[in-house]
Amino acid sequence: MSNILEAKDLNVEYLTRDGNIKAVDGVSFSLGFHETLGLVGESGCGKSTIGLSLLKILPINAKVSGNIFYKDKDMVKMPDNEIRSLRGKEISMIFQDPMTSLDPIMRIKNQFFETIRAHFPKMEESEMVKISSNVLKSIGIDPSRLENYPFEFSGGMRQRVMIALAIVLNPSLLVADEPTTSLDVVVQLQIMEVLKELKDQKDMSMVLITHDLGLVAEIVDKVGIMYAGNLVEFGDVDSIYDDPLHPYTQLLLVSIPNVKLEDMKLKYIKGNLPSLKSPPQGCKFHPRCPFAMDICLKADPPTFAVKGRKVKCWLYKGEKDGSRKTDTASIG
Amino acid sequence: MKTYILTRVILSIPMIFILLTIVFVVLRILPGNPVTAMLGPKAPPEVVKSMEAQLGLDKPIIIQFGDYIANILRGNFGDSTVTTLPVIQELEERFPATLELTIFAMIIAVTIGIFFGSTAAYRYGRPVDAIARIYSIFVYSMPVFWLGIMLQLIFGVWLKALPVSGRASPFMTPDNMYTGLYTIDAILNGQWNVLYDSLLHLVLPSVTLGVVISSVFVRMVRSNVLLSLSSQYVISARSRGIKESKVLYAHALKNAMIPILTIMGLQFALLLGGAVLTETTFSWPGIGSYLVERIRYRDFPAIQGAVVFFALFVVVVSILIDIINAWMDPRVRY
Ligand SMILES: Nc1ncnc2c1ncn2[C@@H]1O[C@H](COP(=O)(O)OP(=O)(O)OP(=O)(O)O)[C@@H](O)[C@H]1O
Ligand SMILES: [Mg+2]
Q1: What pTM value is reported for the model?
Q2: What residue's CA is closest to ligand 1, atom 16?
């Protein structure tokens, strides 16, 4: 067992009254122990859907196919009972909006207790108090606040509480879905700091979902770039930053406000995310791609292994070393 | 909290005063008065005159109204023109029957509402949900007395399984009365046969009233639980491995109950209308049947007393509901 997590040809479709939405389309990736993966992409590209499917807590209208191996066990086929015993104990998740993620009428204490009891029904209350206090302290919250209700905390504090709740049973994998998006900039950095400490101190693997490549660069080991349900590029963070292969990744990197850019102007990618109900023929990115070729309009590209990375782009067909270079400057 | 309750009580005083005035005026506008109702249309005019004088009905309306208000402020609702007993005493005798019926009906309505409503929400779009929706529309459109008569017919007349009227069989009342609620008093006395008898009598009226009220409950619970099931804290509770039953009842339902309680507080007066009809259908000796009975005799003091009593009941219950609400919802601070 070399990987804690391995997704193979994962597909998630939302069945709706007016058509199906293919939110995740043939995504494969793997994550080693103690590694952190950043999943990056525009709004609506299916990041949260992947996050939710890692705990199998998708909405009822979602249809999943493919495999998600957690410690070599396929969660897609796992019975509900077994998967429930993993949630919160082996795999935890924190969410984008800390203001609504806690039950508003339940004391923080009881939200900790019910989480612990869900996995250790016989644990003494004093023991639960001890565990919860310790984890709160480790995350910078006074244990006396266990008695408080969620509305007595600020947004940043609530996100800390959410993190504490997620890690109270020392899970091996933490899925964080845009944990800082709804917070102000100062608090964002504090929360990122908390996550970084977690990564360093506890032996936790993480999947960090974000649309802000810049914010997570310091903390992630691997990056997966998503576009319209596809994982278009996957590899080590440094190589992706230094040498983005997929045109979309290149555009994403340019669009980050970057001190290296002389004009300091915020660049953005022209066009919109395509409809997931009736995606364009061929490569879903071709309408926005500066390098679109004939084949891109006709056939969806497979994933090519290039320079130890995976790229879903026709530009890399048959190129083992990735010698084909695109000119970043010309598309900025 | 104390000042809140006090404010609520003080605010309810003008409301009750307005109600008193309306009842007073309506009773005097409607044709007939206690004397004509008692003596019939063919009574000799001098007898009518002397009786009206005796009851103070010959005085100018405004004086009558002044007397009436002055008496009520002293806690005196007057004497019944039918029995000559003090109205307050008659109301006290009858109130426990209404209270007992209302409590049992509420238990039934809340149970049906919570289980049916939250199961329907949890199984949104499935057969249970469809059944729940049909149930609540069907029951909502069903007149109370019609349901009551049907149940009487089936369980009383055909199956002969349950009593169809009254609170107790002859000689089956509790020996010592503490609360006036037969079931409670029977338990306190240890009279188990009396308890059994009073429960049997309670079944049909409380099921009738409970089922009728439950239609609103099922709908309210269903839509509010549906809303809270889609909220982020439910997803987040799931993500921590909380059991589905706990997610539904400890999180989704509990949060859904807060708006439900608020609406319930507002609707309680409407529920009492159902109680009046149920009492009449089942000859249940409560304040509802008292009111209907005395309207026939134009028993002005009794009618006025009963209406004020209902109003007070509504005020007390809605304050109680507010207290429960504040206790459930930590964000509420009065
Ligand atoms: N329950 C649902 N039913 C139908 N469609 C859904 C449902 N949930 C999500 N979708 C759709 O699936 C697509 C992917 O959604 P998802 O939430 O995974 O995107 P995301 O990358 O997390 O976006 P964001 O950055 O806005 O959070 C979107 O087009 C969204 O509208
Ligand atoms: Mg999302």
Answers
A1: 0.84
A2: A46
